[in-house]
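Question (not urgent): is this output format expected?
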Amino acid sequence: MSVFVLLLGFPGVGKLTIAKELGSLISAKIVDNHWFNNPILRLLDGDQTAPLPKGVWEYTGRVRQAVLDAIIAYSGPSANFIFTHAGVEGDERSTRTYQQFFDAARQRAAVFVPVRLLCAEEELARRVSSPARRGHLKTTDVETSRSRSQQALVLDIPHQHALTCGNTGSCCDIPAERELIV
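Got this back:
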C-alpha cells in the first residue's frame, strides 16, 4: 500500500523542507508545487515584478494533472509520494487542486494524508524574505505574506487522516488531539 502525503501551507512555512525530512523517513518521492508552477512561470516576467496574467494557474493545473496521471499510470504500487500545495481556505482553485491530489490517491488505492502546516505571521515574513527563494521562483514579498496571514487561512478540508502541525511555538487554533509541533 502506498501513501500520498499532501503538505498544505502558506509560502515560507517550510513545506519543501519538511517534505525532504519526511521523505527520507518513509522513502517517498517529493513532488513540490514548484515542479508544476515553474515551467509556466519561467515563461513569464523574468524579474518577477509584473502581475501574473489572469488564467496562468489553469496552465499549472494542467501540468499538475499530467504529473499525477503519469504517477497513476507508471509508478510502482508501493511508491510513496509527498506533495506540496499553498492552498487557501475558500479559494475554488485551491480546492480543485486538493481534489486532484485526492483523486490521484484514490485511483492508486493509496492512503491519503493531508497535513496543514501553520506558522506565525512574523516567522513567515522572515522566511519569505530570504533571497534564496527568488532563484526557485518562490515569493519573497513580505507584505503579501503578512496580508495573507492576516486575511486568509490555510486550506482545511476535513479528512479522516488530516493533521494540523505548527512549526513555531506561536501557532494557534490547532486542535490539541491532532497537533504536532515540528
